[in-house]
Design goal:
The chain is of the alpha/beta class. It has helices at 3-8, 10-16, 73-86, 125-131, 189-198, 273-285, 288-291, 293-298; strands at residues 54-64, 92-95, 109-113, 118-119, 140-145, 147-148, 154-157, 167-171, 322-327, 330-345, 350-361, 367-375, 378-386. The protein is globular, with a radius of gyration of 22 Å. 41% of the residues are buried.
Length: 387
């Protein structure tokens, strides 16, 4: 099967989540080429070098009805970490870009006040995405809205889809990782599932009990031979011995713990190796620009996070999480495990040196501060102002 057919079948991923009838293709989100004044050379080498890790820049567009309703920044960091936890086995990792479409500094988050934050995807997909959209060939766009109709928590459009703008739409209550997120969709796995669609995966119950033998499993249903067929979605946390299709022996149990099913977040735990292979091949082909070395450079993947972005700075999953929040003359920092903090004033004088996992500094005099945070021997620097 060619990738062209997957891209053509893009509507299908969408249909699975019940939206096909509503496809219409008006959103014009410019490609990076159209920002060519950046002078970026996006040609990628023909001899394909296969890196272990595929790096994907992800931008969060927060759409809220009022300014009191912004998603907490620490939940964006937590969501990126959750993605990196769940995609680690696939060798796919996500990062917040340091530079936007036109090379402007960014924290990888945009904010828009709009009544479209109450999102009726049955006819407003294009309008929502035209509010804000970064070139989908260079960024994975995630729009976060306050509410969605018909109890939808997320939906996706596959990369390369020409019928609309690729990316993910999520309701804000499922974004993050446990802290502040509402069970049972509280492990950040709605984003994991939806990004699986963006990277060409279907639900394992696609088509019901089809692809029942070695000849058909790669061309019917989800087109994945190591996810046994499943007659319909499962919800909650079903037993791992659930078996709804009796395929050619060996008749295996349903893939109830798969990220591409509908079970609760705590009960979905994996992509299969053929799903991983399919996503990686799809990214090499259709996502070539997105994961390219040039794009990583242009997005500043290796650069330390920008001052002012500390609140969304997301460490790799192997490091403990670290959050910082500033309110007026107080600053609050919290880490999963003990870190060391050195705080300097604008003249470089040390104000504080402390170890711990929670720091609350109040009544800071007006001025510029530099914080040096050491997380497992890895120093992070950032500046902040108290005004
Ligand atoms: N129903 C949505 C979809 O089909 C997402 C389901 C995600 N499930 C979860 N446990 N977070 O795309
Ligand atoms: Zn789905
Ligand atoms: Ca079976």
């Amino acid at each position: 099967m060619s990738w062209r057919s997957i891209v053509r079948g893009a509507g299908r991923v969408f249909a699975l989540i019940g939206l096909l009838e509503f496809l219409s293709a008006q959103v014009r989100c410019p490609t990076t080429k159209e920002f060519s004044h950046i002078g970026m050379d996006r040609a990628f080498p023909s001899a394909r070098f296969i890196p272990d890790t595929l790096w994907v820049p992800v931008v969060f567009h927060l759409i809220a009805q009022d300014s009191g309703g912004w998603l907490e920044e620490r939940r964006i960091a937590a969501q990126v970490r959750a993605l990196n936890r769940d995609f680690a086995a696939a060798g796919i990792q996500f990062y917040l870009p340091r530079y936007g479409p036109q090379g402007q500094p960014t924290c990888g988050v945009t904010r828009h006040l709009s009544p479209l934050a109450v999102h009726d995807w049955t006819f407003q997909e294009d309008t929502l995405k035209s509010l804000v959209c970064w070139p989908p060939d260079s960024f994975l766009n995630i729009w976060v809205v306050d509410e969605m109709v018909l109890s939808t928590i997320g939906y996706a459009r596959v990369l390369g889809d020409s019928e609309g703008t690729p990316g993910v739409v999520l309701i804000k209550s499922v974004v993050g990782d446990k802290v502040g997120v509402q069970p049972p969709f509280d492990w950040g796995r709605t984003a994991v599932h939806e990004i699986g669609h963006v990277f060409s995966l279907y639900h394992p119950f696609e088509g019901g009990c089809v692809g029942m033998n070695a000849q058909t499993c790669a061309i019917e249903g989800d087109e994945i031979c190591d996810t046994p067929p499943q007659s319909q979605p499962h919800y909650g946390c079903p037993p791992l011995t659930t078996n709804t299709c009796h395929e050619a022996p060996p008749d295996l149990f349903d893939p109830v713990d798969n990220f591409m099913g509908y079970v609760d977040d705590e009960c979905m735990t994996r992509f299969t190796s053929l799903q991983i292979q399919r996503m990686r091949e799809f990214l090499f082909q259709v996502g070539a620009v997105l994961i390219s070395e040039e794009n990583q450079q242009a997005r500043g993947r290796n650069e330390p996070f920008l001052s002012g972005c500390a609140a969304v700075a997301s460490l790799s999953y192997s490091l403990p999480s670290f959050h910082i929040r500033q309110a007026g003359h107080s600053i609050f920092m919290e880490a999963e495990e003990s870190i060391s903090l050195i705080l300097l004033d604008a003249m470089g004088r040390m104000i504080l040196k402390k170890e711990g996992n929670q720091f609350f500094l109040s009544n800071l005099p007006v001025g510029l501060y530099i914080a040096v945070v050491e997380v497992r021997g890895k120093p992070l620097f950032f500046r902040f102002f108290v005004i």
